[in-house]
């Protein structure tokens, strides 16, 4: 059985959902290469800073401080080349990149010779904040901003307590640093998150049936494509089509509101048998479907046992019968088509209706017909 992996609370807190969303947006908009280029240039800029300040009076002094800058130069150049030459990073690599950037900027800032130079160097944390806010979401950005604020606060506090600098005198340096490192990324992230949620809401509504809350035809096809996009599973894709018997008569006699109630009840009954990773959808009218993959010999019998509870539903004390048709096709078949499987399941379902309804039938491709399961 295939799995549509849901994001758990831990994954959402770590920004995996945001990373996946941003990655998809960059890929669909064909901006992925441009994003990698900008990130690489930022790394090269950090490496360049490490080189230039070696010749500046405010730069590092001593072997230890210069070694820190040399490490920043080398790592910045290497990681910048990685963004240019390697494929799009995994989520874990993106998080590791942020950790490297934060620690490297903090180390370079701490080894500068003057307080002003240290505070000015922290401005590079703002660039990392833009990366985090766009790619990894608000929660990880909050962690990054807290780290940046601690670095700026630590440098300022050390200058005031140890070097007896004036807190007011440093205001024009540490306040802009806080604004750029903390406030600007957080404000930008609020705008990004608002846009992300708006787009996600539109996308969900485009893939969901408004009445039942199930996927619509477009959403079902998209979900199946995601599952089969990579390595095709060695399994049969199975589609069960469910249709309420004499639904038109119900609408004509009791009104469309009664029909809607019946559809909602049918959708709830379908949800009750759906297992993790399976797809439930409404194709239109009163036709609901269940899509799953079966990779073991006894899987079809087990599925038919579950589908049996769908053949009768109770709506306001009134029992309605439901016809169910089932069809399957190997996902590895050269001419595999989800629409063909649905069409075969439809044929089996209509065969049940012609026999009186209220039962489940399986489509047999070799005879182009249906048989009632025993």
Automatic annotation (TrEMBL):
One Pfam family per UniProt: GGDEF
Q: Which domain of life is it from?
A: Bacteria
Residue ranges spanning the membrane: these are 34-55, 67-84, 91-111, 117-136, 141-161, 167-192
Keywords (A to Z) from UniProt: Membrane, Transmembrane, Transmembrane helix
Q: Which InterPro entries match?
A: Biofilm_reg_signaling (IPR052155), GGDEF_dom (IPR000160), Nucleotide_cyclase (IPR029787), Rev_trsase/Diguanyl_cyclase (IPR043128)
* Residue ranges of every copy of the GGDEF domain listed in the record: 235-365
Coiled-coil ranges (or none): none
Which PANTHER family does this chain map to?
BIOFILM ARCHITECTURE MAINTENANCE PROTEIN MBAA, DIGUANYLATE CYCLASE DGCP
Question: Which protein, by its recorded name, is this?
Answer: GGDEF domain-containing protein
This protein's species is: Mycobacterium dioxanotrophicus
